[in-house]
TrEMBL record:
<dbReference type="GO" id="GO:0005856">
    <property type="term" value="C:cytoskeleton"/>
</dbReference>
<dbReference type="InterPro" id="IPR051017">
    <property type="entry name" value="Aldolase-II_Adducin_sf"/>
</dbReference>
<dbReference type="GO" id="GO:0046570">
    <property type="term" value="F:methylthioribulose 1-phosphate dehydratase activity"/>
</dbReference>
<protein>
    <submittedName>
        <fullName>Methylthioribulose-1-phosphate dehydratase</fullName>
        <ecNumber>4.2.1.109</ecNumber>
    </submittedName>
</protein>
<keyword id="KW-0456">Lyase</keyword>
<dbReference type="GO" id="GO:0005996">
    <property type="term" value="P:monosaccharide metabolic process"/>
</dbReference>
<dbReference type="InterPro" id="IPR036409">
    <property type="entry name" value="Aldolase_II/adducin_N_sf"/>
</dbReference>
<dbReference type="InterPro" id="IPR001303">
    <property type="entry name" value="Aldolase_II/adducin_N"/>
</dbReference>
<dbReference type="Pfam" id="PF00596">
    <property type="entry name" value="Aldolase_II"/>
</dbReference>
<comment type="similarity">
    <text>Belongs to the aldolase class II family.</text>
</comment>
<dbReference type="GO" id="GO:0051015">
    <property type="term" value="F:actin filament binding"/>
</dbReference>
<feature type="domain" description="Class II aldolase/adducin N-terminal">
    <location>
        <begin position="27"/>
        <end position="208"/>
    </location>
</feature>
Length: 264
């Protein structure tokens, strides 16, 4: 006996009942989910991306709990307020509560950050489990020098009081490695947050690959070179430079060679 897909119940008039500004954010966030699926950054149904809804209300969008990343569309994202009340849930699936805890913490404390992306990739978790964390051994990782915060593992993020410690550990940064858990990036836009995640995932891939060589000694660039690259990478902190749009536009072209359904 076949079961009815939860996608079949999605309202077709979501676009008509939200503002044009919200719809634009929905489309970008759905694209981020589909890109993560394309790059194989998913952990089945268990991780989450979010984006703040434009407007005076403290609402944000997040995935319905039970949908795969390659099933996310602009219409089936769930709208929730900062207190956890679901405002609009087209699929009726609800949300992952751990996702709510993590994302509401950052959206509530950091109004400067519009999007929060969290992954459980193999290499990201592997780096998060290393005492020294992200090592300055590649151009990718050195670009994050001085920009990464760390949050100690407290178990599955189901306790609301963890939000205070998570926000305190993040501080004024927008890149967070969750120890024994995964990666998190945030940004002034979905595009900015995704650019940071793309670079951080690559940095972790490179670190694990380099360490896989066993006894081969790793080369750490001198401090003055690290400082130079750190200064060069300052443009990525703001998120409003032309490089963010250039990177995002290329990602969308890549995605749309095989998938345009995210815009529905």
């Amino acid at each position: 006996m076949s079961s009815v897909s939860p996608l079949s119940s999605v309202s077709k008039n979501v676009r008509q009942r939200v503002t044009p500004e919200e719809w634009e954010v929905r489309v970008k966030l759905a694209a981020a989910y589909r890109l993560a699926a394309l790059f194989k950054w998913t952990d089945h149904i268990y991780t989450h991306f979010s984006a703040r809804v434009p407007g005076p209300e403290e609402h944000f969008l997040i995935n319905a709990f039970g949908l795969l990343f390659d099933e996310i569309t602009a219409s089936n994202l769930v709208k929730v307020d900062i207190d956890g009340t679901i405002v609009d849930d087209p699929t009726g699936l609800g949300i992952n509560y751990a996702g709510y805890v993590i994302h509401s913490a950052i959206h509530g404390a950091r109004p400067d950050l519009q999007a929060v992306l969290h992954t459980h990739t193999r290499d990201g978790i592997a780096v998060s489990a290393q005492r020294d964390g992200l090592l300055p051994i590649s151009q990718h990782s050195i670009g994050f020098s001085g920009r990464v915060a760390y949050h100690g593992y407290e178990g599955v993020a189901l306790d609301l009081d963890e939000r205070e410690r998570l926000v305190a550990d993040l501080g004024d940064k927008s890149v967070l490695i969750l120890r024994n858990h995964g990666l998190l990036t945030a940004g002034i836009s979905v595009e900015h947050a995704f650019q940071q995640l793309h670079g951080l995932e690559r940095a972790c891939n490179i670190q694990i690959a380099a360490q896989a060589a066993g006894n081969a000694e790793l080369i750490f660039p001198p401090a003055e070179v690290v400082a130079k690259v750190e200064k060069q990478a300052e443009v990525f902190k703001s998120g409003d430079g032309p490089g963010v749009a250039r990177h995002w536009n290329a990602l969308i072209r890549q995605l749309e060679r095989s998938d345009t359904e995210y815009k529905n």
